[in-house]
Amino acid sequence: MTVLCVRFQLPPAREAALPGLLGLLEEFTPVVEALPPDGALADLRGAERYFGRSAVELASVIRVRALALHGVDCVIGAGPGPMLARVALRDARPGETRAVPEDAVVDFLADRPVAALPGVGTATSRTLCEYGLDTLGRVAAAPLSTLQRLIGARAGRELHEKANGVDRGRVVPNGVSRSLATERPFLLDELDPDRHRRALLSAAEELGARLRALDKVCGTLTLTVRYADRTATTRTRTLREPTAHSAALTRATYDMYEALGLQRARVRALVLRAESLTPAEQATHQLTFDPVDEKVRRVEEAADRVRAKFGPGAVIPGALAA
Q1: What is the reported pLDDT for 173?
Q2: Cα 85 to Cα 35: distance, rounded to the nearest angstrom
């Protein structure tokens, strides 16, 4: 094992703690790749030789330091490469490290659904399952030509390699992207699309208020849907123009959600992230003469002033009706 995939148990309100936690990882290796809002990859190839300990043993030290210095627990997956470390993370629990046996990678992957591989989306998974290729073991055993006919030459080749345990990925050191995120977990796995939409509305409004408080606008929105089986779907959309307007953020969020075409999906949590942040004063906007839009923006500004004075839970009577 040489690569760790770490997910820190950070609540949305503490996402600003991620740079400090990345600094903790960098005490062991300079090869750290941030995975906002709460994760990172760390290549410990050199650290294993330097400290004379395995990556799994170093993972225990990292967990103890994260708890002692930051009060944050974490789950950790370990593997020979980044892809396998991410797959191992799906089975990890707080307080433990899930490792992929280096001499049994194919066996480790065999019984897992095809969607367990990073980069395999809903459409690809559905296509493969229609032909009986619903596990990585079956994908690994399938002829390469068959996979290429189903999902394309390049995608088929990459999927065949990954299902056979070939991990060509590498950890690319980077910084934390400038972004804001908010999460809406459900107490029970939620099937009702109306409840999903209400949660998304709340998340979009929160992001809008936080952006306006920072005098920022976002150019990109990312929606992550986490399901009951621990899989997730992520969609990203570049906005027509950078904005912090809650109504515009809500429309884009709803569009991404509708494009997923979820059918009685058991949703565990919804995460909305605003990315590509820039100062509001540097953004350009399309002029509008729509009186309704102007009214909504004035109400938004009034609500922001009330929240700044009385706290985030404050509500203006009649604002919702406006």
Answers
A1: 87
A2: 13
| Partners of 226 in beta bridges | 232, 269
Joined tokens for residue 176: 């934390």
For the range 164-167, what are the long-range contacts, defined as Cβ-Cβ under 8 Å and sequence gap of 24 or more? 164/106, 164/140, 165/84, 165/105, 165/106, 165/108, 165/109, 167/79, 167/80, 167/81, 167/82, 167/83, 167/84
In terms of Cα–Cα distance, which of 239, 242, 247 is closest to 298? Answer: 247
Residues of the chain whose pLDDT is less than 50? Answer: 314-322
Rounded CA separation 285/288 (Å): 9
Task: Give strand pairing partners of 3.
Answer: 43, 79
CA 118 – CA 84 distance, rounded (Å): 9
148: part of which helix (H) or strand (E)? helix 144-151
| Burial track 80-116 (b if 16+ CB lie within 10 A, e otherwise) | bbbbbbbbbbbbbeeeebbbbeeeebeebbbebebbb
> For residue 150, what are the CA distances in angstroms to 119, 169, 202, 241, 261?
16, 24, 39, 37, 21
The reported pTM is: 0.60
